[in-house]
Amino acid sequence: xxxxxxxxxxxxxxxxxxxxxxxxxxxxxxxxxxxxxxxxxxxxxxxxxxxxxxxxxxxxxxxxxxxxxxxxxxxxxxxxxxxxxxxxxxxxxxxxxxxxxxxxxxxxxxxxxxxxxxxxxxxxxxxxxxxxxxxxxxxxxxxxxxxxxxxxxxxxxxxxxxxxxxxxxxxxxxxxxxxxxxxxxxxxxxxxxxxxxxxxxxxxxxxxxxxxxxxxxxxxxxxxxxxxxxxxxxxxxxxxxxxxxxxxxxxxxxxxxxxxxxxxxxxxxxxxxxxxxxxxxxxxxxxxxxxxxxxxxxxxxxxxxxxxxxxxxxxxxxxxxxxxxxxxxxxxxxxxxxxxxxxxxxxxxxxxxxxxxxxxxxxxxxxxxxxxxxxxxxxxxxxxxxxxxxxxxxxxxxxxxxxxxxxxxxxxxxxxxxxxxxxxxxxxxxxxxxxxxxxxxxxxxxxxxxxxxxxxxxxxxxx
Amino acid sequence: xxxxxxxxxxxxxxxxxxxxxxxxxxxxxxxxxxxxxxxxxxxxxxxxxxxxxxxxxxxxxxxxxxxxxxxxxxxxxxxxxxx
Lengths: 463, 83
Ligand SMILES: Cc1cc2nc3c(=O)[nH]c(=O)nc-3n(C[C@H](O)[C@H](O)[C@H](O)COP(=O)(O)OP(=O)(O)OC[C@H]3O[C@@H](n4cnc5c(N)ncnc54)[C@H](O)[C@@H]3O)c2cc1C
Fold this sequence. Notes:
Chain A: Belongs to the carotenoid/retinoid oxidoreductase family. Chain A: This is Probable phytoene dehydrogenase. Chain A: Pfam families: Amino_oxidase. Chain A: Keywords: Oxidoreductase. The complex is a heterodimer. By secondary structure, chain A is of the alpha/beta class. Chain A folds into three domains: 2-76 and 202-273 and 416-462, FAD/NAD(P)-binding domain, CATH 3.50.50.60; 92-194, no CATH class; 279-407, no CATH class. In chain A, 35% of the residues lie in helices and 21% in strands. Chain A is built from 14 helices and 18 strands. In chain A, the strands form four sheets. In chain A, strands 1, 2, 9, 10, 11, 12 and 18 form a seven-stranded mixed sheet that branches. Chain A has a seven-stranded mixed sheet with strand order 7-6-14-15-16-13-17, with helices on both faces. Chain B is an all-alpha fold. Chain B has four helices and no strands. In chain B, helix 1 packs across helix 3 (40-54). Chain B is globular and about 30 Å long. The A-B interface holds A 23-24, 63-64, 66-67, 72, 75-76, 78, 80-81, 451-452, 455, 459-460, 463 and B 16-21, 36-37, 39, 41-42, 44-45, 47-48, 51-52, 57-60. The complex binds flavin-adenine dinucleotide. The site of flavin-adenine dinucleotide (FAD) has 39 residues of chain A, from helix 1, strand 13, helix 13 and helix 14.
């Protein structure tokens, strides 16, 4: 009998596991995949290391800053700041056809860009900053307000609204078209007020630290052990049945598998549930260059591009991908200490994709589609950045199918379902959800989610 | 434990929670929050550490007793004097 079973060894599950094991709970993490990390994993192919998730860690804070999410989670996990080895971005950009806005980890740059490119809008932007800083993500009043409406009213400039929404939706909006005001504020702070950073060694460094700590504390991790079913006794969750048929018991269960996915494990029919799973999934085209991206003229860390004045944040319905908007990221373009660099140049381009179409084609068509859409995504991106195609020495691509294989999330939805379950509670006693569908997304967000659910529903409840 | 030992123990817990912080010149009379920027999650940590190390139980409605070093030591003294 375990004190706590955690479903999923992604960022949120590992964080919850560390927290509970630290306080002496007998914890077991069950993971269906053969490796840890979930959406934020890594793989090795043809002698090269690739990251699946991680463009950048958001919520950057310098050493000693204790207020923000990064400081808080380091404290909670008992990590030293140095152990995450975060190196700041060089600088990023929002690129639309006629205007671009540069930003970095100091909000002053964005302010000056807005002053220069949207004359007369500085005061309005200051007012917006004020309401974002005042937004209280604990009491979540007006969480569900329309970010588009509030931005429209505050800024009075449609293009500026689209440009600000673009990076924030790309890095954390599960809802099509509009964004919840609360989620907008959380993402705004994490990107514009705190900022981007990355460890030189990428996501594997973070994952290795997390899993090492978890094991040192006596936590048990079982890979290739998917949960088939959650067992309950009346209205209380009491254990799980694994894919192998083995049954395990626990006093409490925390699931990071997603809300709808977890409800199905409880035998709840989908049609009886409110809301619907998310639909926004991605492809990513990865290009390896024989030079540093900087030497081929690509300086920024991340470019969020959109090829018209209207930003469309929707699942593509006519085509299998939508390359009108995308994210271009080079993991080389962070400020690594002592000018150390990755051995090769990497350019990663993420665009929107249709899960259903990608997962129902034949194998041959899938291989074809990968080639075609790799080309299209890169062709679309080089309208906004120097053309790097002559320097490519290797390529890879991942699709909604890949994302599904790493996470089992419905529709390969990167940010989960549009309706978040902030309390983490379910219809069953002693069953809670954490991670993507609880409320916070991204690397830092999902770690914070795992910690807060472990605190609230296990540690605090016991005292 | 004597009050001085309890104080030392609380300092040790704070050091654990905030390894990057300098807590050597903490003012016992002032709230922790003003000096260390502790949030509610951190107070849970102090409570959990006391339980883990000394099996001291602190009910949730009494977390407020842990506002400053002076109030924490006074509150813990009867609970920890026999340890
Ligand atoms: C292409 C891409 C780029 C990204 N870039 C960034 C970025 O730059 N910065 C950033 O902060 N975030 C980024 N993210 C988002 C970030 O990866 C996620 O928000 C975060 O990792 C979610 O963590 P999680 O623990 O909530 O969920 P997951 O990582 O999905 O973890 C869930 C785990 O549960 C397991 N599981 C599911 N069902 C079962 C079952 N029945 N039994 C056992 N195990 C099960 C899954 O295999 C998985 O390991 C990116 C994501 C993608 C896809």
